[in-house]
Amino acid sequence: MDINALIYFQTVAKYENMSRAAEELHLTQPALSKSISMLEEDLGVELFDRNGRSIKLNRYGKFLLERTDIILREVERAKEDLANLVSPNYGEVSLGFMHTLGLEVIPSLMMEARKLLPHMRFQLTQSNSSVIMRKLEVGELDICLVSSLETSKDVHWEKLWEEELFLIVPKNHPLKDRERVKLSEFASDPFISIKKGNSLRKYVDEIFKREGYRLNVAFEGEEVHTIAGLVESGLGVSLIPQIKGLDQYEVGIIRVDAKDCKREIGLSYLNNRYMSGAVKQFIQFIREFFINNPQTE
Questions:
Q1: Are 107 and 137 in contact (CB under 8 A)?
Q2: Measured between alpha carbons, how far is 25 from 212 in angstroms, rounded to an integer?
Q3: Quick check: helix, strand or coil at residue 22?
Q4: What is the DSSP letter of 246?
Q5: Which residues of the chain fall short of a pLDDT of 70?
Q6: What is the CB neighbour count within 10 angstroms for residue 292?
Q7: What would the CATH number be for the domain defined by 163-263?
Q8: CA distances from 228 to 74, 100, 242, 251 (A)
Q9: What is the 3-state secondary structure (H, E, C) of 256-282?
Q10: Residues 294, 4: Cα–Cα separation, whole Å
Q11: Is the pTM for the entire model greater than 0.85?
Q12: d(CA 17, CA 72)
């Protein structure tokens, strides 16, 4: 059994179609079929159920596929680490981040990365914090920039900066011209909230709970600009960070006199997972970037 045999098997398992797999691998179909047959003979077990020209991965094939994915991933990591030893600053990093960071923080971070790490490649994934953390835990991401969430003990999280949360109200709201308000002054107002599963929702829920109130949720959205648009329409109030473009909405932006009316954002990665030289280098780059470029309101 060699690496090519596993690559061929992985591709056939992906499509469960010999013709499509052969086309992707740039092989003739007879050559690919022979390779799969030799692999099955070597292992002493059939990996596919065959019915005429159709093939279906069986339970032995599924068992081997799980391990094949791990083996080939480790081979790629070994290649990447060897390349890093010979040529520093090379490699690929998968980075996940919250929606709100895609407006300004991530573009600034990646512009600086392109200057200092010009040969490094990046795969970027944007979603809410809970989705991002799940992707990290199953190995789809190397690093995340997210708010702190309750996660497994294997997840490392370190604070990089914090963002104050502001009350936003419609232009005709009685509090619109105030510079600072207490939470009690708007606690009963219809609230436009981020959906559960988003770290911002977790922080807002905790702020209201500390002050002795519960959210009076009128509408829920998935993205902060959607929330701002709903507030502008007069459908309620909300607590959000001062994101780029918020000043384009006709809303009042008011500081809230409440304990820890803010959210913390930091860097996450798995403690017990293999980490390539490129990932380690980029983690250090991120730390230095936020030391040298503090995020201010």
A1: no
A2: 62
A3: helix
A4: G
A5: 84-88, 149-152, 296-297
A6: 8
A7: 3.40.190.10
A8: 45, 13, 11, 8
A9: ECCCCCEEEEEEEEECCCCCCHHHHHH
A10: 48
A11: no
A12: 21
Q: Which residue has the tokens 């068992």?
A: 63
Q: How far is CA 131 from CA 9, 96, 118, 144, 147, in A?
A: 30, 9, 29, 11, 12
Two domains, one topology: 3-85 and 88-160+265-292: no
Q: Which neighbouring-strand residues pair with 56?
A: 49
Secondary structure letter of residue 293 according to DSSP = S
Token reading at 178: 């105030």
The CA-CA-CA angle for residues 169, 174, 178, to 5°, reads 75
> Hey, which CATH number is domain 88-160+265-292, 3.30.1370.60, 3.20.20.70, 3.10.129.10, 3.40.190.10?
3.40.190.10
- Which pLDDT belongs to residue 88? 61
pLDDT digits (tens, 9 = 90+) for 207-243: 999 999 999 999 998 889 999 999 999 999 999 999 8
Query: How does DSSP classify residue 292?
Result: H
Distance CA 87, CA 83 (A): 6
CB-based burial label for 256 (10 Å; 0-12, 13-18, 19+)? buried
Question: CATH number of the domain at 3-85, please?
Answer: 1.10.10.10
Residue 280 CB-half CA count within 13 A: 10
Gap between the Cα atoms of 89 and 57, Å rounded:
40
Domain limits, the chain: 3-85, 88-160+265-292, 163-263
How many angstroms separate the CA atoms of 10 and 2, rounded?
A: 13
